[in-house]
Amino acid sequence: MGILFTIFTFTATVLLLIIIAFLYLTFQIYSGKSIKNPDYPPVNGTIFSRIFYFNRLYDYQTDVAKKQKTFRLLGPGQSELYTTDIRNIEHVLKTKFDNYTKGKYNQDIATDLFGNGIFAVDGDKWRQQRKLASFEFSTRVLRDFSCSVFRRNAAKLVRVISEMAIVDQIFDMQDTLMRCTLNSIFKVGFGVELNCLEGSSKEGTEFMKAFDDSNALVFRRYVDPLWKLKKYFNIGSEASLKKNIKIIDAFVTNLIRTKRKLLAEERLCDDKEDILSRIFGGEQERS
């Protein structure tokens, strides 16, 4: 009898805690959100509804955007605004850009992967990195180099797709385009060939997969209310993210170390074309 009572008490307590947590979460989601106020964009559900469409999220949100150019998804303590209205996009990205910071909420989610890079910071740090990037991309050498890289990789992409088409091979178009993009970005940014489009580089392919998976896992944090708990205990998706980030860090660290070594040995030509070589070259000149 005592065992049954203990089991019943434990079960009832767990259920009560679940109900309390659910009610608290519901209150946080719906309170103070001006749901029926016509001055605010219409509500199209909660951020947790995206869990059901996560594997086809872009298609789902495109379908929603065709019906509502601007809409809200409610979340605990805040709403997320989505828009395809060109006027709103111009307002956010150009006219009043300084008003729309990434904020602590987004930084907490993205920092593990992007660190203090331009994609995750605000204010002076963002302006400093943008100024550096803008200066480098304004140089003729880098413009010419990046154009040649993108043209060359576009030709590779056409060849790879043509070869698969000839043998009626089914392939993932998004994955193929991402491989091509990564090839170009790494050549322009770091001066190295990932060769992940052809799949000839094991390290490049491993990095690409780790980076792609990490992006998906970071984005999943937006719909996973338990991600911080998972991170603390290093379990589930957060354990996978940590593993992938280690692969990314090791790859990039080795790349930077090699680049510094080549520069120190003066084995790179004076006409430094990629961004990393130009930055390191500038550091050497200042020192």
Automatic annotation (TrEMBL):
Enumerate the UniProt keywords alphabetically: Heme, Iron, Membrane, Metal-binding, Monooxygenase, Oxidoreductase, Transmembrane, Transmembrane helix
What GO molecular-function term can you cite, just one?
Answer: heme binding
Stretches that traverse the bilayer: 6-27
List the cofactors. Answer: heme
Family annotation (Gene3D superfamilies): Cytochrome P450 (1.10.630.10)
InterPro entries named among the record's database cross-references:
Cyt_P450 (IPR001128), Cyt_P450_sf (IPR036396)
Entries under PANTHER family matching the protein: CYTOCHROME P450
Belongs to which family? Answer: Belongs to the cytochrome P450 family.
Protein's name according to its UniProt entry: CYTOCHROME P450 FAMILY 704 SUBFAMILY A POLYPEPTIDE 1
